[in-house]
Amino acid sequence: MRLAVITDIHGNWDALVNVLQDIDHSGVDKIFCLGDNIGYGPESDRVIQTLRDREIPSILGNHELAVINREYLAWFNPMARKSLEKTIEMLSDNTLSYLSDLERVLVHGEYRFVHGFPPDSPSTYRYEVPDYKKRRIFETMEEKICFIGHTHDLNLIAYNGETLTSELLVKGPSILSFENRYIISAGSVGQPRDGNNNAKYVIRDESAGTIEVRYIPYDITSVAEKILAAGFPGIHARRLL
Ligand SMILES: [Fe+2]
Fold first, then answer.
1. Ligand 1 centroid from CA 151, angstroms
2. Which terminal CB of the chain, N or C, has fewer other CB atoms within 10 Å?
3. Bridge partners, 185 (sequence order)
4. Over the stretch 170-219, which tens digit does the pLDDT of each residue have?
5. From the CA of 83, how far away is ligand 1's center (Å)?
6. If phi over 0 gives left and psi between -120 and 50 gives alpha, with beta otherwise, what is residue 132?
7. 3-class secondary-structure state, position 223
8. Which helix or strand (DSSP H or E) is residue 22 part of?
9. H helices, E strands: number in the chain
10. What do you get for the CA distance between the two ends of the chain, in Å?
11. Cα-atom radius of gyration of the chain, to the nearest Å?
12. CATH number of the domain to which 87 belongs
């Protein structure tokens, strides 16, 4: 079984298309999406349409949460709020209805999918969780691996029943140990914040026992121009470059 995990597409349809093309050529059996499919980028509605057309299951991100619960929007920084308010104006009724039905958690076999941090938070950042809480979460989590998004970077937390370790995930495959449980930050397709401007996603290969980080180029300049032309905050265009 080869499983692709994509997250934080953030309205960047061009990046999503290139990532899906790569997935289609990578012998992947199943794709899961960790939410934050909207906001920041210029084509949120088109991203949702593509995910739905491809029947890719997605969970709720904090940006989707802010659409269905506008009080939560007050917690966003001013530029993110401005971007999401503009995004909401551009979403179809069909998409709004789809967003309101998203779940906070998906479980598939030994995998758990959550946007922020397990067990089920769409808004908690990984670095906010103290180690004693991480241990407790690992000890009560039934699944072996939890994939998370939200921080837009690539990271692997491992727990062997005693020791917690945390490390950056680098480009290419890394071997996972059968003895450990993991919480894996799967990067960002559409708004990377890890110092490299390619779209990124991960593939879990069960028979090889690996997690692979894939870097996918796309036409960043074109997307930045679309963000500016649509009147979104310029910071979200500059951040892509
Ligand atoms: Fe995000």
1. 7
2. C
3. 148, 155
4. 999 999 999 999 999 999 999 999 999 999 999 999 999 999 999 999 99
5. 12
6. alpha
7. helix
8. helix 13-24
9. 8, 11
10. 35
11. 17
12. 3.60.21.10
C-alpha 36 to ligand 1 mean position (Å): 5
Distance 179 CA to ligand 1 centre (A): 31
Q: Which residues surround ligand 1, an ion (CB under 5 A)?
A: 8, 36
Beta strands in the chain (DSSP E): 2-6, 30-33, 105-108, 111-114, 145-148, 154-159, 164-168, 172-175, 181-186, 199-205, 210-216
Tokens of 23: 């997935």
Number of domains in the chain: 1
Ligand 1 centroid to residue 8 C-alpha, Å = 5
Q: Which domain holds residue 152?
A: 2-238
Q: Rounded to an integer, what distance in angstroms lies between the CA atom of residue 241 and that of residue 233?
A: 14
Distance 10 CA to ligand 1 centre (A): 7
CA-nearest of 197, 228, 193 to 86 is 228
Q: What is the pTM of this model?
A: 0.97
Write down the pLDDT at residue 180.
97
